[in-house]
Amino acid sequence: xxxxxxxxxxxxxxxxxxxxxxxxxxxxxxxxxxxxxxxxxxxxxxxxxxxxxxxxxxxxxxxxxxxxxxxxxxxxxxxxxxxxxxxxxxxxxxxxxxxxxxxxxxxxxxxxxxxxxxxxxxxxxxxxxxxxxxxxxxxxxxxxxxxxxxxxxxxxxxxxxxxxxxxxxxxxxxxxxxxxxxxxxxxxxxxxxxxxxxxxxxxxxxxxxxxxxxxxxxxxxxxxxxxxxxxxxxxxxxxxxxxxxxxxxxxxxxxxxxxxxxxxxxxxxxxxxxxxxxxxxxxxxxxxxxxxxxxxxxxxxxxxxxxxxxxxxxxxxxxxxxxxxx
Amino acid sequence: xxxxxxxxxxxxxxxxxxxxxxxxxxxxxxxxxxxxxxxxxxxxxxxxxxxxxxxxxxxxxxxxxxxxxxxxxxxxxxxxxxxxxxxxxxxxxxxxxxxxxxxxxxxxxxxxxxxxxxxxxxxxxxxxxxxxxxxxxxxxxxxxxxxxxxxxxxxxxxxxxxxxxxxxxxxxxxxxxxxxxxxxxxxxxxxxxxxxxxxxxxxxxxxxxxxxxxxxxxxxxxxxxxxxxxxxxxxxxxxxxxxxxxxxxxxxxxxxxxxxxxxxxxxxxxxxxxxxxxxxxxxxxxxxxxxxxxxxxxxxxxxxxxxxxxxxxxxxxx
Lengths: 326, 318
Ligand SMILES: Cc1ncc(C[n+]2csc(CCOP(=O)(O)OP(=O)(O)O)c2C)c(N)n1
Ligand SMILES: [Mg+2]
Prior knowledge:
Chain A is of the alpha/beta class.
């Protein structure tokens, strides 16, 4: 069926709530659907107890979700913008992520934290960031970042079934893309990458919105005779490194692309891990595509210039081929 | 409030109203950018509070800040240019609607993160006190911000350190799409601070005269070194939460009722009744405000777009 990323997420939530009465949705204005309509319709079916509106209290609601999860519920917490995750991080990082470990395995925190990031809507420096790499630095958290509607639904279902805290990072510019999605979406396994386009010349590992930019760049490069393999890791933690190194063994070239700034970005982790594991296969240094190291400007021309896109992926592919040892 | 003060407050209110209505239209023609939150209906609070502050008193705001910025003295052309993302804007096009700053006029910060500027206002108050100055710091925030952790933490610290700060809550009864009752069982924000010994009052925010009197009383104590105060102004957000909000979650106020409550018209009526100004003067103020907005739009449209080089030069100071 043709549907949007936003609707696919909403449907996955509804299905999880139907299947398991321990699942509840909690967050600011979730009963009204939130600013992106993701949770619309849920309160009508499941009621205000299970579709629970909260005040603007990110720290407390993250702690509440943690406590509820370790007491038998399966909360799906929404933090409206990833930019506000800053307020929730203490509970998430110091409590939820470490509860199993610090309790010697007694506690389990099966909570999901859904949020969304990304620029492109002139929303300015506090409503556009890509902060996923922070989360990847915290043992105990799992991090998924779907680029397609089918994975947004499948990974969310997988995350809800998971025994550990999983952060799902959606992207606001993808919400209203229409895509083909199967009528029944199976839960996607956490920790498995997807090869979205096969190619023999260069491997591009891209995250979230940049997957679509990489696919567009690959189409264009194909017309010039360059075959790009596009991999969406889908899960950042745990990372499916094997799919990436298998690809690099065939293409001998690697580009990583994300919208977050380069320094300390997840691309650095992929480059280092693949550079180590596939050192003998690489013909050139790994190229990274990322945003400039600065806050996100609101002025339209500046934001457009700031955002990495297909042209940057294309340039990186050409650069990595140019640097190949003959 | 005397006649001069009333004229000045009315002028500020019309300037904000005309500006906000124009910004709403500019949003629909995509000339101003991003998430735009208008303060139509709340002009009386911005005007009556900022109208009693000195240039070197400090103001902070949140996501609905245009009125506060103008009332504190920021020039309208530069404010408009910032909303349009132009280099001539207050923040050179880097901040936009939710991040207006004008240090020259004591406007030190607005934020898109609810509750985020409350502690910063305490910090400015602390700095003033440590320098031995009698300036005060004022922070505007919505009723939604009261449930954020920063509010509770700041109330305690402001009282503990007796900081010269006035917390001004614009309680419009809604946070985004939810009524206050969905967020808290406490109806009056002014009831929250009694245990800390913070003087607090609730006023009808649609009545600029009442806001003026009540804020003036609290301000005098704060300036005299008696510690923080809190003013809750009950307002109505005439527009949706943001421009483009379908606003289906509440019943609109009927046009006739709004005529009664509208803070700008209300101050006009009061001023005419009390002889603070006559109808011609009121009309002149209104027309001047609209003309000023058109000039500001024209000026902003002429302002160049900022360059990526400018943006990258603004990340660090050295
Ligand atoms: C920390 C944080 N959480 C959530 C949001 C999303 N949000 C933006 S405005 C708003 C409601 C604010 O309500 P209130 O403080 O009453 O101000 P009003 O919009 O009514 O002026 C919310 C929830 C945000 N900007 N920041
Ligand atoms: Mg409000």
